Amino acid sequence: MAYRSPQTPRVRPLEPVQLPPESPGQSPNFLLRDRAGLTQEPIVVSLPALYLIELADGSRTFDQIAEQMQALTGLTVEEQQFNSLMNSLDQRYLLDNERARERLSEISPRPACHSGSGYPAEPGELAEFLDSILGRTADPEPAFSPASVLPHIDFFRGRESYQAGYRHLHGLARGEEPLTVVILGISHAFSSTPFILTQKDFDTPLGVVETDLDIVEQLGRELPFDPFRDEYNHLSEHSVEFHAVVLKRLLRDRSFKIVPILCCSFHEAIRKSSSPLGLPGVAEFVKNLKALKSRENVHFLASVDLAHMGVQFGGRPLNRQFLSELERRDMESLAGMTEGDADGFFATHQADGGERNYCGTPAIYTLLKLFPEKFTLHRYQQCTDPDLGSTVTICAATLESNQTKTAALGRHPR
User: Is the pTM for the entire model greater than 0.90?
Assistant: First the structure.
């Protein structure tokens, strides 16, 4: 089918990967990676084509794109050339248009795309694997926890922190009334909005986890942005999927649904040293979330990792002294969490300009705005490469319903 250009075409957010030149002095080419995973078909483009793709953000007509391309590069773009590029992207569902939306709607439930790589795919093996993480609670009548902060790093590196957190969540499995778990995950793919919703249920090897459509609809009301605009990002994002899988095992004897939310970057507020509530749409979405606190049997789970440092993240190799200093700085940030101080937590990232590359900042900040109460930190862990090349830091914390804070802080040996 021939591509028919809309008035203002929008290319979905893509990750360009520069390819090695085939010969010295050759202009670079780029592999476009669809982090959302709607398509796996690769496409390689030239640098001028990459400029055109970045300009096609849904706010410009072809004439405006051609004018800006001329100003940026001095190149003249013919409409036929542009339409040919857009057609190639369209065939791979890389444009945000009716065709891609139809493809997105056909994918239901959302597949367990990390099954077999992030966790066992065979149900019996997975149940045994998850039981080793969930463990047992020493309390014969565990209390209901209204909120938690847990990692989304792979289960293998983050096992101790998953265990430390979930051993305090066995109270979620008690009770006969249906439970709702609001999962504040992180969008690792670029998004043009501060939060992303989806109405899709989540498939797992243990069965489908249903999404609470009524709450999703409530959260989407009266917002100055479309919370489904970048719904594509939910397809391959692991930060919600991992906990949907664990909860399916933990809550196997209780009816429950989830509310899958992806939180997106608050870096603009870090850069400007301003409140995230001043970012377009953040205050309104947080207000909608707060309305859920009046409901019975609702748990809020922030699925987050903390610092990302070292070679893998564009930095230098690490050493023991660096890791010790990183722990000190992380504990300064986490003091905001243990005190229930969202602004204090965020201020530590503004102070260092986001240098530690926290991916969990928006979810933790949002959770603390909902619960300005003291969390108990059960575990802080540095998941460091054996050669000290890179590290990811994580933690586990819960808010106890009776506000008793008796758990001791554990540290993973570095």
Answer: yes
- The full 3-state SS of 211-258, as one line of letters, equals ECHHHHHHHCCCCCCCCCCCHHHHHCCHHHHHHHHHHHHHCCCCCEEE
**C-alpha to C-alpha distances, 249 to 152, 202, 240, 241, 242, nearest whole angstrom:** 17, 14, 15, 13, 11
Give the burial string for 324-353 (b: 16+ CB within 10 Å, else e): eebbebbbebbebbbebbbeebbebbbeee
- Kindly write down the DSSP assignment for every residue of 41-63, as one continuous string: ---EEEHHHHHHHHH-BSS--HH
| pLDDT tens track, the chain, 414 positions | 444 567 899 999 899 999 998 888 788 999 999 888 888 888 999 999 999 999 999 999 999 999 999 999 999 999 999 999 999 999 999 999 999 999 999 999 999 999 999 999 999 999 999 999 998 876 778 899 999 999 999 999 999 999 999 999 999 999 999 999 999 999 998 899 999 999 999 999 999 999 999 999 999 999 999 999 999 999 999 999 999 999 999 999 999 999 999 999 999 999 999 999 999 999 999 999 999 999 999 999 999 999 999 999 999 999 999 999 999 999 999 999 999 999 999 999 999 999 999 999 999 999 999 999 999 999 999 999 999 999 999 999 999 864 434 333 444 434
Copy the structure tokens of residue 153: 């790093």
- Amino acid, single-letter form, for residue 161: S
| 351, 383 contact by CB (below 8 A) | no
Torsion-angle region of residue 243: left (phi > 0), alpha (psi -120 to 50) or beta? Answer: alpha
Distance CA 137, CA 128 (A): 17
Q: Which residues are CB-contacts of 319 (< 8 A; sequence separation ≥ 6)?
A: 388
